[in-house]
Prior knowledge:
The chain is an alpha/beta fold. 48% of the residues lie in helices and 12% in strands. The chain has a 6-stranded parallel beta sheet, sandwiched between helices. Strands 7-10-11-12-13-14 form a 6-stranded parallel beta sheet. The structure holds iron/sulfur cluster. Iron/sulfur cluster binds next to helix 10.
Amino acid sequence: xxxxxxxxxxxxxxxxxxxxxxxxxxxxxxxxxxxxxxxxxxxxxxxxxxxxxxxxxxxxxxxxxxxxxxxxxxxxxxxxxxxxxxxxxxxxxxxxxxxxxxxxxxxxxxxxxxxxxxxxxxxxxxxxxxxxxxxxxxxxxxxxxxxxxxxxxxxxxxxxxxxxxxxxxxxxxxxxxxxxxxxxxxxxxxxxxxxxxxxxxxxxxxxxxxxxxxxxxxxxxxxxxxxxxxxxxxxxxxxxxxxxxxxxxxxxxxxxxxxxxxxxxxxxxxxxxxxxxxxxxxxxxxxxxxxxxxxxxxxxxxxxxxxxxxxxxxxxxxxxxxxxxxxxxxxxxxxxxxxxxxxxxxxxxxxxxxxxxxxxxxxxxxxxxxxxxxxxxxxxxxxxxxxxxxxxxxxxxxxxxxxxxxxxxxxxxxxxxxxxxxxxxxxxxxxxxxxxxxxxxxxxxxxxxxxxxxxxxxxxxxxxxxxxxxxxxxxxxxxxxxxxxxxxxxxxxxxxxxxxxxxxxxxxxxxxxxxxxxxxxxxxxxxxxxxxxxxxxxxxxxxxxxxxxxxxxxxxxxxx
Length: 560
Ligand code: SF4
């Protein structure tokens, strides 16, 4: 009878475990395949082994032979589980490898395609990988996908993305390069290689927009602002042999926006990126969003976004809007109908987004966001002292109590990625430790602490430059330092070394394995979702790695 009971229980546990393992592995296949995440199939096994072993031992009867016999059934269960999961993983791997091989083959064949050939390049910072160290924190260059979509059909287009493949010379008729500030020197070096061979280069993106004069020294043409409105003219001028040096893109309407050609993105990305709005009225002192995308919050029609989402094969989505919720009643209604639309269409996505602290103020928004698959929200909290927030022009944060908003977000089952800044003019070692304590004691599930970075085009940059406080001004070479990881100006209240020591002390506490374990358990408890807790843990590990290692993972064969 005991034997029968044991066998029945093992059968039940095994069935449950296999179902859970297969279910979670398939649901999280992007993370398993693309980021090497093993938790979706290891965790169910742990949940099986522990209870079934304990139950079996209870029935063992106290003899060695009894123990051995009792453990036979769970042992067989483990073997069954391993066999099933090996099959599932092998099937997924075979499909994924085929996808990669087909993509790599297409990339290699680009140079041999009939012209005109457009090569779009997304360079990486050649010196530091910073936050883009793992698959978890790399995101497809959406802007290049949009330009590809706007390129007429008689062109062949390739996107060379240094997040995954180091640049090596690839023949083309026209080259387009985008770059964040920290990758600008690398972009210029690559541009020089093409121009040396007589191949024209067009540069665009946030850095070239904020430094058009500088970019023009390294490119044949520069596109400033949002490129959609002028890209067809750039290509037409090129084909007519009359490429102009400067094209001002300004800010485009987001109705009937082109759908990015995602098939040109490297399939190794864990997240697909989608944009539903642009612009931000908040105009924070350190932020380049308002200078680039304008103060007006422009929104795409919900129906168009839903159509785009439905066509994306990946489950994991990052809404790259600077604020998915926007400001005011109408914007909130739009976000609500987007979330409801995702649920009604059964899109079955897991997603994260960026928002302001008002995301935590509307229970209906939180409920619908969670229902549609929201796992995590990035909030630019920056500081905790209202006066410090006011100096950054972060007045919404200064007016809003953090704790109730963060708690409400957690209660809805969503993790909070809290972004904080060290290095403001009111930071002292004590003030930085107060921020650290706040992060530890409050529902901040994922911790991002970066150095206040005076990005070009912002008021902060102009002020630091005007006050003669910038520490590294050999531009463009020094732009590689502008990756949010380093103090780039003389701090107001302390020396740079003192600032660095205080920052290091805080980061050691924040990113210790112990803190991350506590945060993981707290996220699981507060959100009630193991999947959400794993998302948060994965993100914390990215920040930990970026904080404690500054690897040179990209070879820089080129010099400026
Ligand atoms: S930091 Fe956020 S809220 Fe402030 S201007 Fe930039 S996008 Fe807007």
